[in-house]
DNA sequence: GACCCATGTCGACAGTGTATGCATGGGGTG
DNA sequence: CACCCCATGCATACACTGTCGACATGGGTC
């Protein structure tokens, strides 16, 4: 069983975007942040599905915000990264950092 | 077609491990490096398959080394990351760095 | 040549990445 | 207040990645 899975690349980015957006983080805002960073289109569905899966794994929690005033729409789903989520983010980063170590200097060839 | 895919987490790690091992990089050595870094078991198959896929995408090249002396075995398959591979590694890292920006400082809450 | 070890390759299946399209809930407008 | 519209969210589908276990191959050793 791969129950010790690493976060995927996109999952990491979504979690990080959630943290960056902060307080009222919800899908559309996260999406925008992602697109701005990666400089390319990201589909809404991709974000929602990833958010769902992350939540099922306990890496983030969500709460339904009581509908925004102004232009209508369904109540927003606010998400927040859990400590566990933060921990996993840091874990992957540590691995990558460790593997990058020493590689920046010598750009072979 | 998702032909503009990001490197997955594991793919990144494999590519980085290849670069770290350097010259005679081949699966078992890469595997060992990976396990040491992640501090957990990684199956040999996972490494080989990933190496294959990465090669098919042109992110690394391989050459069959004329069998090692000493204790027998099949000829080793030496791999090397291509410039394109390096570029993609840097791209993902840039995105992640960008998203991490500002999150280390304030761990309030 | 029987056995063993180091490598490499296959095939299968779960998990992640991504897109398209449907569902829902209010706000305007006539 | 019926309808259209827009902002969100959700569901489905399918390709790509992550992982494993088992099988294949090629040389040493005895």
Description:
The structure is a homodimer of 109-residue chains. Chain A has helices spanning 9-21, 27-38, 44-56, 83-100; strands spanning 60-64, 77-81. Chain A has 109 residues and is mostly helical. The first copy, chain A, has a single domain, classed as Winged helix-like DNA-binding domain superfamily/Winged helix DNA-binding domain (Arc Repressor Mutant, subunit A). A two-stranded antiparallel ribbon of chain A has the order 1-2. Chain A is globular, with a radius of gyration of 16 Å.
- CATH class category name of chain A: Mainly Alpha
Overall pLDDT level of chain A: 88
The number of E-state strands of chain A comes to: 2
Helix/sheet category of chain A: mainly alpha
CATH architecture of chain A: Orthogonal Bundle
Strand order, main sheet of chain A: write it out.
1-2
Order of helices and strands of chain A: HHHEEH
Can you describe this structure in just a few lines?
The structure is a homodimer of 109-residue chains. Chain A has 109 residues and is mainly alpha-helical.
Features of this protein?
homodimer; mainly alpha; two-stranded antiparallel ribbon; 9% strand; 109 residues; DNA-binding; globular
Would you spell out the secondary-structure blueprint of this structure?
Two copies of one chain form a homodimer.
Chain A: H1 9-21, H2 27-38, H3 44-56, E1 60-64, E2 77-81, H4 83-100
The structure holds a DNA duplex (30 and 30 nucleotides).
